[in-house]
């Protein structure tokens, strides 16, 4: 059954703030959110209600979460329980705002500027407006800044306002860290003062910042006179933040996971351009475990034959196939390009791959399910180039279901108490959560259904765990061990393939499979604390039962 769930309804219109207050108001807005969810997607809503009726609470929450979050009133519902910033006036470095008045010099622009200045004054934050007679350029502001007080600088655009307590929250955070950039969450505010479209941001994600500036306009920076002089000119705020972030030896930017800014507008994410092709690519060993299902294997290997890559070694690990057609196909494979390892016995994904790695010749490893279908010939080169970076461990592709919806766009820890695929069931052309599904970014883990990693790094962390994660979560565990060594997992959507998920192995509905999965889930929870943890690239205010980055309600 194909079910479409509208996920960006809150962006189409911003309703006025609901008027009822107290418990009656909360009940009214809750009913409205559920009514919206049912009206926009009745079949998915009834399915979620059915799971709730069956007392399958985790499954019901997973189904309800994206439906309720799609309501235009969902954010108002969230704001009913929003906790105040709650920071009393804190000791710490002083803050000086650098205000960008924008290009609108008319009455509307002046009104926006005045609103920003009033907000700063309410937070006791002095300001300099760049582009005025006092400070025509950012460089002209340098002699006006009391550098002896080591101020924190806040680039802010006209029309943006601070949440009450924002300055104190920044000062308190700054007093406890040497980070040169501290950033916060934000939302948008329309001309009538109604808040909407919150952005609950990830922890520091340098790769995401290449494609989505989620810092400028909602951060403070520790900068010096030279920083301002060398970024003076057009788009000075963005260039100043970039310069400070990229300064050699700087600590990673620090995230304050609270909405401290109400903004008139914000930069849009941009889908990444093609990856530059620089330097030679090493031999890659593609490892494909399989059992029977020659139709799937043929599609997978035909796709590898069409793949444009200088040198590929394909290792097919046959886990006890007994189908005559499959055996005949394996025997007929061209030996110059393919090697077939016969490994009968109980299915253990980790063991099959580890044994193949021991036979592999490539400097790069590509773990590939037999039910993967190649779409474009450059997928492997894209993933390989990313995996060769000094800071990268496992690289994962964007995987689609056969109907075109997303199956994998990175892995999020803690969802459902374990780990889940991000943005699952979203269509690639949908907005989703700030287009995160379409942007290369660091993630906690990626799926081994299509994963590329340097062989040296795979072996350095001991390969896949054959004992604790024979079938499920072995990829998550591998990625987490790579991350711990400073080799961060990367999601790369410019490599997109089709995944016919679990077609050949089944869904573990038998008692033995269910018991094994329960044991692997318990091992994941015990090792990485996924029952309580919040993924650093997720957010506490996003629903822990939804793969769709839905607002927590």
From TrEMBL:
Keywords: Transferase. It comes from the Bacteria. The keyword Transferase applies. GO terms for molecular function: transferase activity. Gene3D superfamilies: Spore Coat Polysaccharide Biosynthesis Protein SpsA, Chain A (3.90.550.10). Residues 285-404 form the Glycosyltransferase 2-like domain. InterPro entries: Glyco_trans_2-like, Nucleotide-diphossugar_trans. CDD domains: GT_2_like_c. Pfam families: Glycos_transf_2 (PF00535). This is GT2 family glycosyltransferase.
């Amino acid at each position: 059954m194909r079910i479409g769930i509208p996920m960006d309804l809150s962006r189409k219109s911003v309703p006025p703030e609901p008027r009822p207050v107290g418990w009656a108001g909360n009940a009214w807005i809750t009913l409205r959110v559920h009514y919206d969810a049912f009206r926009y997607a009745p079949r998915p809503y009834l399915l979620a209600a059915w799971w709730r009726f069956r007392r399958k609470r985790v499954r019901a929450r997973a189904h309800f979460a994206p439906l309720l979050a799609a309501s235009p009133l969902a954010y108002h519902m969230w704001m009913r329980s929003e906790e105040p910033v709650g920071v009393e006036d804190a000791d710490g470095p002083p803050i000086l705002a650098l205000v960008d008045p924008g290009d609108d010099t008319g009455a509307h622009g002046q009104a926006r500027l005045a609103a920003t200045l009033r907000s700063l004054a309410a937070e006791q934050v002095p300001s300099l407006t760049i582009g005025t007679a006092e400070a025509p350029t950012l460089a002209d502001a340098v002699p006006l800044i009391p550098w002896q007080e080591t101020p924190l600088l806040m680039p802010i655009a006209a029309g943006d306002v601070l949440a009450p307590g924002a300055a104190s929250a920044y000062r308190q955070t700054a007093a406890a860290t040497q980070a040169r950039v501290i950033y916060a969450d934000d939302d948008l505010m329309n001309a009538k003062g109604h808040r909407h479209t919150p952005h609950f941001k990830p922890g520091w994600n340098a790769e995401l910042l290449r494609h989505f500036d989620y810092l400028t306009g909602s951060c403070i920076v520790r900068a010096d006179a030279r920083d301002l002089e060398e970024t003076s000119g057009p788009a000075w705020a963005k260039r100043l933040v970039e310069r400070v972030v990229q300064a050699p030896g700087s600590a990673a930017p620090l995230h304050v996971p609270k909405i401290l800014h109400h903004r008139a507008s914000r930069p849009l994410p941009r889908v990444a351009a093609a990856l530059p092709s620089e330097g030679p690519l090493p031999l890659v060993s593609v490892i494909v475990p399989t059992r029977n299902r020659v139709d799937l294997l043929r599609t997978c290997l035909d796709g590898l034959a069409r793949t444009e890559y200088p040198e590929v070694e394909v290792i097919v690990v046959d886990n006890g196939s007994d189908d005559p057609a499959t055996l005949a196909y394996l025997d007929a494979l061209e030996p110059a390009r393919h090697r077939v390892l016969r490994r009968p016995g109980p299915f253990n994904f980790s063991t099959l791959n580890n044994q193949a790695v021991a036979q592999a010749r490539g400097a790069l490893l590509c773990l590939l399910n037999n039910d993967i279908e190649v779409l474009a010939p450059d997928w492997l080169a894209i993933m390989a180039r990313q995996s060769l970076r000094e800071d990268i461990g496992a690289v994962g592709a964007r995987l689609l279901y056969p109907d075109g919806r997303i199956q994998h766009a990175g892995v999020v820890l803690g969802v459902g108490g374990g780990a889940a695929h991000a943005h699952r069931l979203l269509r690639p052309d949908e907005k989703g959560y700030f287009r995160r599904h379409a942007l290369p970014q660091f993630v906690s883990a990626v799926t081994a259904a299509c994963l590329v990693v340097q062989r040296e790094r795979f072996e350095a962390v001991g390969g896949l765990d054959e004992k604790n994660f024979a079938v499920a979560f072995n990829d998550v565990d591998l990625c987490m061990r790579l991350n711990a060594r400073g080799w961060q997992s990367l999601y790369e959507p410019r490599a997109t393939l089709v995944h016919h998920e679990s077609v050949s192995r089944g869904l573990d509905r038998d008692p033995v499979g269910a018991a094994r999965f329960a044991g692997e889930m318990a091992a994941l929870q015990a090792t990485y604390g996924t029952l309580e943890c919040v993924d650093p690239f997720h957010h506490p205010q996003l629903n822990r039962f939804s793969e769709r980055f839905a607002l927590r309600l």
